[in-house]
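Lecture 7 notes: from sequence to structure.
We start with the chain below.
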Amino acid sequence: MQEIETFKLIERISSLLRSEERRKYATIGLQPVHGQVLEYLAKCNKYSNTHAAVAEYLGLTKGTVSQTLQILERKNYLQKTTDSEDGRVIHLSLTDDGRALIDELKPLDIFKQAESKVSRQEFDTIGQALQTTLGVLQKVNQTKSFGSCRSCRYFSVAENHYQCGLTEQPLDREDTDKICRDHLPTPNSFIDQE
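Predicted structure tokens for the same chain:
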């Protein structure tokens, strides 16, 4: 059961980071895949900077990568160079504009902020560390927590039944383990700490 909860936390953190990434790239007219290609090219060696290597690394089709490379080349973020020994091989490299874009956009600001807060904490489990990381990311990104009823400040147990203090409605046992968009973390949660 703990493995499932850990997986769910990783999944939610990933979703939050992807959302922030989409927002940042949209402001400059790009998709996250464009940034992923640029990031890969910024760190790969001269034997791995080909169209096929990009597709393999990112797990994308060659067609998707071809379209992405065309866009990035048109926007002057990358350049293509024919291999000096084998004219069939095309090498990809970042232009100065491409390197500047990577420096500007990565790592995501919210992750840097969360990492600085979380790195000062000590944790007993991976799940605890991920829960705290998620909470900090949600707070920094000003997104709703979508937590379970049992971890919400509105949740209460009275006379052997569960209740939502926000809606003043009773809750079924099954509902208390489900996520809610109106979730507010309990006051002792790391999310609420400055």
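Points to note: The two ends are 31 Å apart (CA to CA). Residues 2-20+109-181 form one domain.
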